[in-house]
């Protein structure tokens, strides 16, 4: 009986460690490639009462401390884009990689997005953001990893499992990506 209990504890501990495996190199690999979508989120962002969907970004310039790129999104049925720039780095006391984009739409104050999990095979990552004292999550997926014929198939990957684990499954999963995003 003790062996079974010990095995369960070890598996649970490994699961927790696995969901916190992102490095600064992972952050660079996720955002410095093709267009990346904010595939899902634990919150909705609004501009003038309309929810934003199809949020994506393509970095044009990156250094170890700075980012500049194009952010695209839909407001209702209208597509919009804007230039974004911001900071990159590691949180000093935890060494967690983060990006802190300025002028993210619908956000009144700039909040760092901490990369908590990255899957190199599925090319997706889970970010944690604190806004107005509340913890939120975002699931970012590289464009080349989304099955355009069935865009919801990403929900079966390790990223969704890690999203639920990091967000403690009590946060909603709002899908922001659909086939109209391309």
Automatic annotation (TrEMBL):
Signal peptide as annotated in the record: 1-19
InterPro entries, alphabetized: Calycin (IPR012674)
This protein's record includes keyword Transmembrane: yes
Transmembrane segments annotated in the record for this chain: 43-62
Keywords: Membrane, Signal, Transmembrane, Transmembrane helix
Identification of the protein by name: Lipocalin
Source organism of the structure: Rhipicephalus zambeziensis
